[in-house]
Amino acid sequence: MAEELDISFLEDVTIKVTGEVGRTKKLFIDILSLKEGDIIKLDKHVEDYVELYVKDQLFAIGELIVANKKYGIRVVDLA
């Protein structure tokens, strides 16, 4: 029988998780001219999966959701 790994000492460790919705390239002059309400077009559609990164490494794939009037990401697959 396999021995279970005790990782309880990691319970209070905080890590940065980044969700990437899409990317784009802009000239610096275009970025400087942005104002409130402007729309930046990304390379993905709202229905596309998003990537979740931990320390710049792909960790999971998810989908955008709205829960309690806030946006979130539902994990659908681990990388």
Blueprint (SSEs and pairs):
Blueprint: E1 17-20, H1 28-32, E2 50-54, E3 57-67, E4 70-78
Antiparallel strand pairs: 1-2, 2-3, 3-4
Explain this structure.
- The chain is mainly beta and 79 residues long.
- It has a domain at 18-34 and 41-78: SpoA-like (Surface presentation of antigens (SPOA), Roll), CATH 2.30.330.10.
- The protein is 6% helix and 37% strand.
- The chain has one helix at residues 28-32, and strands at 17-20, 50-54, 57-67, 70-78.
- Strands 1-2-3-4 form a four-stranded antiparallel β-sheet, with no helix packed on it.
- A hairpin with a 2-residue loop joins strand 2 (50-54) and strand 3.
- The model has no long low-confidence stretch (mean pLDDT 92).
Major sheet: arrangement of strands: 1-2-3-4
What would you give as the CATH superfamily of the domain at 18-34 and 41-78?
A: SpoA-like
Please give the largest β-sheet.
4 strands, antiparallel
Kindly identify the CATH topology of the domain at 18-34 and 41-78: Surface presentation of antigens (SPOA)
CATH class annotation of the domain at 18-34 and 41-78: Mainly Beta
User: Helical proportion?
Assistant: under 10%
Q: Please tell me what the overall shape is.
A: elongated
CATH architecture of the domain at 18-34 and 41-78: Roll
| Number of helical stretches of at least 4 residues | 1
Could you report the average pLDDT, rounded to the nearest whole number?
Answer: 92
